[in-house]
Specification:
By secondary structure, this protein is α+β, with helices and mostly antiparallel strands. 19% of the residues lie in helices and 33% in strands. It has 2 domains: 31 residues, no CATH class; 92 residues, Immunoglobulin-like (Sandwich), CATH 2.60.40.
Length: 144
C-alpha cells in the first residue's frame, strides 16, 4: 500500500522509473567485460624511493598482459581474459568477467620509466616504479 501511494506521486514515479532503467542497464552490463567496477583491482603505495603496485589478475597468463608508463606519471595496464569454453553444458551464471581491459592511473609523482620492474606470479602483477630524480627530495645547502 505504501509503495502504491508513492508511485502515484509524479516525483516518486519518476525516481522509480529511473531506478528501473539504471537496474536494467546494470543487468546488461553484467555481461560486459569485467562488469562495472575498476579492473584490475589494485593497491598503490610508496616505499623508500619508489611506488609499488599490486594488481589482482586471476586467470590471466603472462602473455595476456602489457604495461606502459607514459609522460613519467601515467601507468597503463592492458590485457585480455579469455572467455571460458563451456563444453557439454549450459552456463547459468557468469560473474567473472572476460574480454579486453585497460586501466590507466595517474601516479602521484614522476617515475623513472627506464627502471620500472614488473613481475607476474600466481595471478598477481607486481610493479616497482622508482621515483624520477626530479621527484626525489634534494637537500639544499644553507648559506650564512
Amino acid at each position: 500500500m505504501f509503495f502504491s501511494r508513492l508511485t502515484m506521486n509524479p516525483v516518486w514515479r519518476s525516481l522509480h522509473d529511473m531506478q528501473h532503467e539504471v537496474n536494467r542497464v546494470f543487468d546488461r552490463l553484467g555481461h560486459h567485460p569485467f562488469g562495472m567496477g575498476e579492473f584490475p583491482t589494485l593497491n598503490l603505495w610508496e616505499a623508500d624511493e619508489a611506488l609499488e603496485v599490486e594488481a589482482e589478475l586471476p586467470g590471466l597468463e603472462l602473455n595476456d598482459l602489457e604495461i606502459f608508463v607514459t609522460g613519467r606519471n601515467q601507468l597503463t595496464i592492458k590485457g585480455e581474459r579469455k572467455s571460458p569454453a563451456v563444453e557439454k553444458g549450459v552456463t547459468h551464471r557468469q560473474e567473472r568477467g572476460y574480454g579486453k581491459f585497460e586501466r590507466t592511473l595517474t601516479l602521484p609523482y614522476s617515475v623513472n620509466e627506464e627502471a620500472v620492474e614488473a613481475h607476474f606470479e600466481h595471478g598477481v602483477l607486481k610493479i616497482r616504479l622508482p621515483k624520477h630524480e626530479s621527484a626525489r627530495p634534494r637537500k639544499i645547502e644553507i648559506k650564512g
